[in-house]
Each structure stands twice: as structure tokens, then as C-alpha cells.
Amino acid sequence: MGSMLVRKNFKFDKDLIDKVSNILEKKNKNFTQILVTYFQAITKEPELLDTLEKKAKERKGSFIGMLDGKIGDVDFKEMKGKRSESIS
Would you say residue 3 lies in a domain? Predict the structure, then answer.
């Protein structure tokens, strides 16, 4: 298997790296292994990227974060349409 340099200035958030390092250390993995596994999973199941993105953006610890997943996935225009239908 060949390898290639993706970017010379591939940068990550330091706090995020510290948190991930602790998790990877417990699993006896390194960053290269986890990125390769991540890319392999996405190529086999592209929908996984949407799931991971949603999970990463999920808020925790605040009042609004407690409501995540309980309100629904309705956009504003659809909600406004339903409200106007119920009024008429």
C-alpha cells in the first residue's frame, strides 16, 4: 500500500487533540490508525459522515442542549407553514 502526503499544514485544535489523545491511548491506537479507520468506514458507508457530523455538533450541558433530538428536525419554513395551516 502506497502513502501520500495530504497537506503539510494539516492543523487541529490543541484541546481537541489532547482529549482525543487520552481516548486513543486507552485503546492503544494512534492518530494515523484512527484516521485510516475513519476514511475506510466513510468509503464503505457514506451516510456515516452525516451521523458523525450530527453527533459532533450536538450540544451538551446547557438547557438548549437538553432539547436536542426532542424537538424534531423541522426547518423554519415547514414549521411556519404548519402553523399557518392550523390557524386557518
Answer: no
C-alpha cell at 39: 476514511
| 5: in domain | no
Please work out, in degrees rounded to the nearest 5, the angle formed at the alpha carbon of residue 59 by the alpha carbons of 58 and 64.
125
Q: What is the pTM of this model?
A: 0.54
The tens digit of pLDDT for each residue in 52-86 reads: 888 887 766 666 655 666 666 666 677 777 777 77
Residue 49 CB contacts under 8 Å (≥ 6 apart), including other chains? 42
For 87, the 3-state DSSP assignment is helix
The residue among 82, 83, 57 whose CA lies nearest residue 68 is 57
Could you tell me the three cell numbers for 33? 490508525
How many residues are listed for the chain in this entry?
88
Question: Is 2 inside any structural domain?
Answer: no
Q: Locate 65 and state its grid cell.
A: 442542549
